Amino acid sequence: MGELFAPTHLIILFFLAIPLLGIHFLPTIVAGIRRANNFGWILAINFFLGWTFVGWVVALIWAFRDTSRDVVVYAPPPPYTR
Fold first, then answer.
1. Across 70-79, average pLDDT
2. What is the C-alpha to C-alpha distance for residues 18 and 65, in angstroms, rounded to an integer?
3. Beta carbons within 10 angstroms of residue 47's beta carbon
4. Are 82 and 61 in contact (CB under 8 A)?
5. What's the pTM?
6. Alpha-carbon torsion 52, 57, 62, 64, what sign?
7. Which long-range contacts (CB under 8 A, 24 or more apart) does 65-70 make?
8. Which of 1, 68, 59, 81 lies closest to 34 in space, CA to CA?
9. Which residue has the higher pLDDT, 22 or 68?
10. Span 4-20, pLDDT tens digits
């Protein structure tokens, strides 16, 4: 069996944990990149219920559908004058 905290076990754990945590917190990452209005709620749902598949999917859908805090306004072109 070997020792549980052997250096090779820690390296394997590190390289498995980082991608899995990234996948787990994907809804929070998406909400942060999109600057979602309800970022705190999405983070809370993802943190507390993300371990369930339903909670993770709800947080992911909410992250994609929530409106952004940034408002983009396109100004019309200036009037044409001669």
1. 83
2. 26
3. 14
4. no
5. 0.73
6. positive
7. 66/31, 66/34, 66/36, 66/37, 66/38, 66/42, 67/36, 67/37, 68/34, 68/35, 68/36, 68/37, 69/35, 69/36, 69/37, 70/35
8. 68
9. 22
10. 778 888 888 889 999 99
Residue indicated by tokens 């309800």? 38
Nearest-angstrom CA–CA distance, 25 and 57: 11
Cα distances (angstroms) measured from residue 68 to each of 39, 45, 64, 75, 82:
10, 18, 10, 19, 40
- What is the spatial distance between Cα 30 and Cα 61, in angstroms, rounded to a whole number? 10
- Any idea where the domains of the chain sit in the sequence? 7-65
